[in-house]
Amino acid sequence: MHSQIAIEARGLSKNFGDLRAVSELDLDVPRGQIYGFLGPNGSGKSTTIRMLCGLLTPTSGTADVLGTKIPGNAKLLKPKIGYMTQKFSLFGDMSVQENLQFIAEIYSYPKKDRKPRIDELLGKYDLEPQRKQMAGTMSGGQKQRLALACAVLHHPELLLLDEPTSAVDPQSRRDFWANLFRLAQTGTTILVSTHYMDEAERCHRLAILDNGVKVADGTPRELQAATGMHILEVIADDPYAAQAAIAERAEIASVTQLGVRLRILIPERYANPIEIVNNALASKNVSGNTQMATPSLEDVFVAVTMKPEDRSK
Amino acid sequence: MKSLSRLGAIIKKEVLQLSRDRLTFGMVFGLPIIQILLFGYAINTDVRHLKTAIANQAGTHLSQQFESELRASQVVHIVETADTPEELEGLLRRGKISLGILIPSDFDRRVADDNRAAVQILVDGSDPTILGVANQLRNMPIRFDSAPVQAHKQELIEIRPYYNPERRTPVNIVPGLMGVILMMTMMLFTAVAIVRERERGNLELLINTPVSSAELMIGKVTPYIAIGLFQLAIILGVGQLLFDVPIRGSVVDLYIAGSAFIAANLALGLLISTATHTQFQAMQLTVFILMPSILLSGFMFPFDGMPEVAQYIGEVLPTTHFIRLSRGIMLREAPIGELGPDLFYLIGFTVVTMTVAAMRFSKRLD
Do A102 and B9 touch (CB under 8 A)? Predict the structure, then answer.
């Protein structure tokens, strides 16, 4: 009955006038997983999410979301999805309870079950003390928990989260992700867009978007294994001079300073990366300790979103 | 069934929010009262009680009779008496009076003489309205000429104004004001209510729920229909209480006309909301429609006296038609059946505007 795929998109594209926001996107999101969209601002994450829930009509391409064809009758889809907007979009001049009540009514949640469901959500998302508080006066973390509670109230099969954690502190973010894992465990498919690496790392699978194009996808581990780059770290007394020395070498794809350390990406086809770096340092009389490192997701991100000419050096 | 409960949810939410938005809530009830007081008391096109000084140098029986007749007209309010024309000029110059009336010592003889003016009126001509009043007063000595010594003369021409015999402005203003106030609040509130939801991001949330755009629009607009009808009652009540504005026709007819007019404005408000992105834009656009509705609807100036082009524009505006309806029902006791064309125009306007708004609204989600 249920297929194991929640979302299957083929060649999904969206143009806004001359601007191509999303280009030829193929996507396979398995059920019950947390699937991440990683990408900088303007990379087409929000546009893709909006197409998948039927808010925007694709310029070309199709998708199958929970058995509903996109483009098609998005009405059938709405009761099955929960959507959390980037910006807090609940009613600030209504209390937490009133907001939940309103959402319950909008989704025609069975009348007799409404109160128990709202009480359950208030407990689960730690909003019991704010029950009577106006939503607009709450902290960022509280607002976000309310938004999530409202998005899942009607037990959606698919949860679409558009940069849900951009306005909250790290502790709230951890709690938020704990909630997402709990939801995924009960079978909810979650599609979440983010530009935080640590969040992307928590996803079961993720797709990296850049300028509307999917440049890589897979599990975080697969992606890390397939950067096509040597990753090196240099600890230098004068990181600034070291960076200048290394950056001018043609073989170097990218140098990034992280405090006293430098993170260096060199395409895999060069066999002797440590030598390249050490030679670069020696030529400018800069001292430094060079080591190989394991790729992080940030390295993946840098590698796949860099300009083609840098990558093929 | 589900659709109805969703509609109910939207209406409930809207009322809840409205009751918490003190400023808007206050506007709903305060605006009509303040407007009607302002318009009713301040805008007075009939001129009365002009400050006047009189210098009666004749002191005869006839001149005193003329003087008391002047007083009885209520157009002048004699605040000073003087002895010489110079004194009158001084009072005029100092702004103590707007009119100075000089009755010369040979008043009786002058009245009998057709070729000489009997009375001189000194006028502060800076306000054309006052000058106009003075010109009317000039008619009085002529009547003296025609029947010099009679104490109570027959007037040559009798003017009897219909419908507003006292010529009080409020009687004409209030029915029109009803149109202007309803238009202003209904159109502005709906436009702003929807644009605000878009600005705050609420709309993005709502369109992802099973709520259809029709449910959303109707749900948002419904509370304002009730508010509009309530405002109508306020204006009628205050109009009657403070300004004795009559309701000669049927109140039910008036409410039928009012409902059609409210619907027309709500539709217009929705249309504005689909054309604007911010509350500020919505307000600007509302004012853009408000101005001609005040100036060209017959509210301010007599419709038939306007240039032809202005009349065409006026015919398009719903306010014009509602003012015709309300004046007809309230002042001329016209049954609504006789005012059919105006009522049908309002209904037609609503249907067309609502259709365009709904089409644009669902498109805007893309």
Answer: yes
Q: Which of B8, B202, B365 sits opposite A91 (nearest CB)?
A: B202
Q: How close B222 gets to chain A, by Cα (Å)?
A: 17
pLDDT digits (tens, 9 = 90+) for B211-245: 887 888 888 888 888 888 988 888 888 888 887 77
Q: How far is CA B327 from CA B11, B295, B314, in A?
A: 33, 17, 16
Q: How far is the C-alpha of B78 from the C-alpha of B52, rounded, in Å?
A: 5
Strand partners, A134: A95
Q: Which residues pair with A288 in a beta bridge?
A: A236
Task: Report the residue from B21, B202, B366 with minimal CB separation from A57.
Answer: B366
A136 CB near a chain B CB, below 8 Å? no
Instruction: Judge: A55–B13 Cβ closer than 8 Å, yes or no.
Output: no
Tell me, yes or no, if the two domains A5-223 and A227-311 fold the same way: no
Query: In the CATH scheme, what is the code of domain A5-223?
Result: 3.40.50.300
Nearest CA in chain B to A91: B202
The encoded tokens of residue A287 equal: 């001292």
Q: Would you tell me the crossing angle of helices B318-331 and B169-200 to the nearest 10 degrees? A: 140
Please, what CATH class does the domain formed by B50-146 belong to? alpha beta
Which class would CATH give A227-311?
alpha beta
What was the ipTM of the complex prediction? Answer: 0.76
Nearest CB among B5, B201, B207 relative to A105 is that of: B5
pTM: 0.75
